[in-house]
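Section 3.1: Structural characterization of target chains.
Under the original work plan, the team committed to producing a structural model for every single-chain target entering the pipeline before any wet-lab resources were allocated. The record below documents one such target. The sequence was received from the expression subgroup and is listed exactly as submitted; it comprises 100 residues.
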Amino acid sequence: MDKLQLEVSLEERASRLKLFTRFFWMIVLVWPMYIWMIFISIVLFLHWFVILFTGRFMPALWRPTGKFFVYMTRLNAWLYLLTDRRPYLFKDGDSGPTQK
């Protein structure tokens, strides 16, 4: 069973330039996130039927959903000024402390 763990710590220093560019970077991230949300909605719909008929989670459908929610958690932490580390869209593990 995978664990869900979230740790938020205060960063003393904040970059003013990153704060200013945050709004523009969010505009760039909005459209790929909408496309990804549509894909994950379809996956969740299919996964619901798999669980209904088999009574088990299917790892191939569970993994993309898990990755989506991990990324959305990173994105929301960045958006709500909990971190100054920008979440990159297509690179794993570079938006702060993630998997160990």
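Residues 16-52 form one domain.
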